[in-house]
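Hey all, sorry for the wall of text incoming. These are the two entities for the joint prediction.
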Amino acid sequence: MYKKVISIMLLSVLALSIILTGCSGGNSSETTGTTGTTGTQTSGSTGQSSASNEKVTIKLMHRFPDEPFQGFIDKVCQQYESAHPNVTIKQTSAATDPYKEKLTVMLSSGTDAPDVFFGFSGEYLNQFVREGKVLDLTPYWEKDKAWADSYMPQLVQPFYTDNKLYGVPYRVSVKMFFYNKKIFQDLNLSTPQTWDELLAVCKKLKDAGYIPIGEGTADQWPATHYLAILNARCVPADILKKDYDPKTGEWTDPGYMQALDLFKQLVPYMSPHVTGQKHDMGRQQFVMGQAAMMFAESVEIPFIDQEMDQSNPVDYGMFAFPSIPNAKGDQNAILGAPEGFSVYSGTKNPDVAVDFLKYLCGQEVGKQEVKEIKWFNACKNTVDPATSDAKLVDCYNVMVNAKSVVNWMDNEVHALIRTVYYEDTAAYMNGTMTAQQFMDKIRAAAQKAKQTVQ
Amino acid sequence: MRVSKTTAFLYVLPAFIIIALFVYVPMISNVYYSLFQMSAFSANPEFIGLQNYAELFKDNVFYIALKNNVLFAAVSVLVQCVFGLVLAILLESKLTGKMSTFYRVIYFIPAIMSVSAVGMLWSFIYEPSIGLLNKVLEMIGQTDWARAWLGDEKTAMMSVIMMSQWQNMGYITLLLVVAIQKIPEEYYEAAEIDGANALAKAWYITVPMVRDMLVVGIVITVTGAFKVFTEVYVTTLGGPGQASHVLGTYLYLQGFINNRAGYASAIGVIAFIITFALSILQIRISNTGTSAAE
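and here's what came out:
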């Protein structure tokens, strides 16, 4: 009798736990292999949306789980919620590479898809646009002139596909060479304008015992940034545009080989064992004064400030990537890109979602963004030269004056080509692959990419 | 207490449903998806029959991954099962005496650490400029052995494999320790009377008696070696180039980064066939389940 009672109880516990785990929403994403995933989980709250237009929940997904950036987004959400009491914002986040994979899964899941999500402009967003997952913002953009005019147009341009707008910028990052002013002064060096000047500076630095360029390419993306700007310098702009489009990419221009050769010339001047260490390590070497230069993004400025040893600070300046004499590409392009937010095409509350988007990426938040976390968004007049850090103002002016922006490689090209750039650049740097073999692989990937987008 | 067939069936049913839903159904769906060209979020998958497999067999990254998995398995069996057995015998011998529990714990602790944490830890150890390994090599004067362990095609895979041995050897050792503890003392006493030394006792008594557990250990290590993913993902991402790709990471690359979910499913199916065949083979060869101790 006793045994029977116990066994019935155990069975019911078992049954109950099965039912409960089944019901608690499929959102327990054990994001595989993430070393940086944090973030509050959306509880997949079904049945909480606007039946009566009263309470609305907006799901926001972003890639800034670190402080102070997460705290900043929390603040923005709270500000919006206080101004719109009927709206609740639920966040999910993940670090960059896990984010890309997580978003792929979330957007394909339908009901769990976020309403407002972060996206890199260019091919990254286009892959979702092609599958119809992104809301077309053009009608909203054209209706609200005040909103549209508050942006710097060259920074919104990358979010257009087939003349329709699919996202708005939240932050803009430009990549430049940072240099240690004291070391340059000591060695009587001036900032290089051309490629040959850059190599000469590197040689002098190396002879003096410094690491010329603090860098690490083990995380795969840093090397592709050099190739992205070198491709823009060496390949004529119209051919570059054609090749980057998966439908028409051929990749036969000799400029690509030239870019690879130039890059190889720079590798010996990077940190020793550069393929075995990560980019952060390279930045550390710069901040500690071992490396005289580094090629980094403007959004790394807050990290530099955090990592700087206050008792021995590095006074640094910035210069743009040098021009390549006699190269056929755009010698004035700046490597950088706006990154921003888009709205899911299947969102239940498009108007509220777009309204939140306008706020998140708007001028008011932009001003706070510069002040508090030292990032720019694409809105005009967010930086006040009188009260802002001189380095930020320099950066900002570069951006405002940039006539053209070159996007990061992984967001610009089709996934198959991106994989070759990501994986095989290390082999090329190590010398186990020649430039010819590299380009053959790219061309093969381009062929395959064409098939998948037909 | 007699149990009626229906009751027994009802007890088994919940677990069976869960396994069916979460293991077998996905397995079969996987085979289905491998016949299509699609991305994880594509609206219209395109049926292409066995083309994914045809491409897979011509893909040399697949063979690199396969080779790496085989290397992983071979090293794992050698280090975890063979050296693990030696270690287990040592732990259970008079040599360690009262400290044996302490040693057991020390060797086992890495096995309970999260693989991602171990990956981060060893990324630091292998770091070329400030990492422990290169610094130790400098200290003992072998600076020319210092290199970018995870950044050099020749050493990347082996470095990851060694990291995995560090983590998992304790686990197999512990299994073997348990098996050794079940061996009756009388056998050893009888052997001593016959004049056997420690080596002979180990070889003629311990090793045959732990055979069943050893087979379990080998099956675990080999199937584990073919399923490996996190170890590679958090350290080298399969790089440099494709030198340290394993089936798991190559599948992930194709499925989630290249957005070729059909191709990734094909890789998954092949990986499954390999692990399944190997497990059956090992169990058959060792003929376990028929020993007297059962």
